[in-house]
Amino acid sequence: MFVSIVIPILNERLYIEKCLNSILEQEYPPDKFEILLVDGGSTDGTREIINQYMQKYKNIKLLDNPKRIVPCAMNIGIRKASGQLIVRMDAHADYSPDYLSKCVQWSQKTGADNVGGPALARGKGFWGKAIEYAHYSAFGLGGADFRTGKYEGETDTVFGGAFRREVFDHVGFYNEHLVRNQDIELNSRITTAGGKIFITPEIRSTYYCRSNLKDLWRQNYQNGLWNIYTSYISKSALSLRHFVPLFFVGGLLLSFLILVLGLTMPNVSGWYFALPFVLCAGSYFTAATMFSLQISWKNGIQYLLPLLAVFATLHISYGWGSIKGLFTVKQWARENAA
């Protein structure tokens, strides 16, 4: 089976060589796959690195993505692809030597429209490791099938994914209105149409998570924002776990407003109004502390306080992004209807 690998890229100088080397070292025969790198206009030397690889490897192609965002890159790559199986890869990841062979094997074995493996995080530096540990915690990212690295069977989404080419004829291409969640939305269309998504830990890869709190905040703020926009397009694409941070931050803000209101009321003990905020913030802090203790007991007590900061950054930014989405989704919908 001929395989087309599609990789959206934009300024990936720090990651592209390791990613390409892991693909070129695949056990799968090199004459049986092509690598389509779809670039959104890199200016950091990424294209120069790729050109060096292209001089040596004839199965690497560099395509342009004028719209710069991931779903557009994927659609460009899919239309140019020659493979019967189209594998979506990420430049911020590297892949086990049997990754392609396992994708082909499990695609043929299950007959699924999309097969893939879990999203196994790897952090760089001290804070990167703390963020990595939070990724594997059910408290951190909700314990989805594609996060745990243990589940095998039918699921709602996978990391990357190996798609049978004909699936795009049946359900359409990636939604180019979605800067985030385009994979989840596409997989939702597949399952809604009666298709099957299959995950197995035998399809192994690791991706590089954020390495500091500032980048983690930015990433998850955008994730929360785009959850609301995605839900506007597809009500069934996301599950309840995607909105837990919204409920938490919303509850925190509401209880804080109740507290402020109570403190301004004359002849009333405002501290009664503090109870909802204390319960909301206190229960979160207790849960975060318990999970941080559990993780740091296993990986080092030095991670205890950093994990508390990571969990708070992760959940508050995510929930705040969702709140912003609630106030801007109508405007976004009007702009994208044009």
List the helices and strands and how they pair.
Elements: E1 3-9, H1 16-24, E2 33-39, H2 46-56, E3 60-64, H3 70-80, E4 85-88, E5 93-95, H4 99-110, E6 114-117, E7 120-122, H5 125-136, H6 138-141, H7 145-148, E8 153-154, E9 159-164, H8 167-171, H9 182-192, E10 197-199, E11 205-208, H10 213-233, H11 244-264, H12 275-299, H13 304-337
Parallel strand pairs: 1-2, 1-4, 2-3, 6-10, 7-11
Antiparallel strand pairs: 4-9, 5-11, 6-9, 8-10
Helix pairs in contact: 5-13, 10-13, 11-12, 11-13, 12-13
Please summarize what this structure is.
This protein is an alpha/beta fold and 338 residues long. Helices cover 53% and strands 14% of the residues.
Q: Helical segment tally?
A: 13
Classify the secondary structure makeup into a structural class: alpha/beta
Question: What proportion strand?
Answer: 5-15%
Provide the CATH top-level class of the largest domain. Answer: Alpha Beta
Termini Cα gap: 41 Å
CATH superfamily of the largest domain: Spore Coat Polysaccharide Biosynthesis Protein SpsA, Chain A
- The total count of strands amounts to 11
How much helix is in the residues?
40-55%
* N-to-C order of helices and strands: EHEHEHEEHEEHHHEEHHEEHHHH
Number of domains: 2
Rg on CA atoms, Å: 22 Å
Any guess at the CATH architecture of the largest domain? Alpha-Beta Complex
Which stretches are poorly predicted, pLDDT < 50 over at least 5 residues? none
Mean pLDDT score, rounded? 91
Q: What's the CATH topology name of the largest domain? A: Spore Coat Polysaccharide Biosynthesis Protein SpsA, Chain A
The biggest sheet amounts to: 8 strands, mixed
Within the largest sheet, what's the order of strands?
Answer: 3-2-1-4-9-6-10-8
Shape descriptor reads globular
